[in-house]
Amino acid sequence: MRYGTLEYRLCYLDFETFGTAIPLFDDVRPYERIPFQFSLHIVESGEKKSRHESFFADGNSDPRPEILQLLKKLLGDKGSIVAYNAPFEKDKLRKACDVFTDFPKWYQSIEPRFVDLLVPFKSFYYYHPDQHGSASIKAVLPALTGKSYDRLEMADGGTASLEYLQITFGDVDEKERHKVRRQLEKYCALDTEGMRMIVDALEAIIS
Question: What pTM, to 2 d.p., does this model score?
C-alpha cells in the first residue's frame, strides 16, 4: 500500500468482538466473533484533524443491526475505509450483512473501498527497528509516532472481549460497569486514532 492509494474522505475503522461457545443470538455459529463496539475516526479532504464516532452495545440484544445502520450512515459513499488487518473487519461486516438482508448490497458497495494498513508493515515495505520484528499496531504505533498503549488500563482485544461479556451478562454493579466501559472506549478509540497517526507519519516520511 502506498499513501497515494488512499482516497478522501478517510474512515479509520476498528471493531471489538466477542465469541461464545453457546451462541447468544439467532443466526450465530459457536465461537463466531460478533462486534459489540466500533471506533471510527473520519478525516475530510484537506483536514488534519479527525472527527471521532463510536458505538458501544447497550443491553444484551444483538448489536449487529444497529452497528450496520450506523456505519451505513457514517461511512458514506466515497473515500477509503482503513483498517488494521482489514480482512477481519470485512468478514464481520459481510457475515452480519448476510443475516440482516437489508444490507448485502450496501456491503458490496463498500467492500472495494477497504485498505489494509497492516500490509506495508507485514510486507516490510516499511520497517523500524523499534518494532522488534512485529507488524502489530501495538509495535508500529510507538515506533513511528511515540504513542503507545502502555498507559491504558485495558490494552488487548482478548481482555476487552471478556470484560464486555462480564459487564453485559454478569452480575456487575453500575459503577464497575461504567468504569470498564470507559476503559473499552479508550482502547478502541486509540486503535483508530493510532491508524490515523501512522498514516500521517508515513505521509511525512514519503514527503
Answer: 0.93
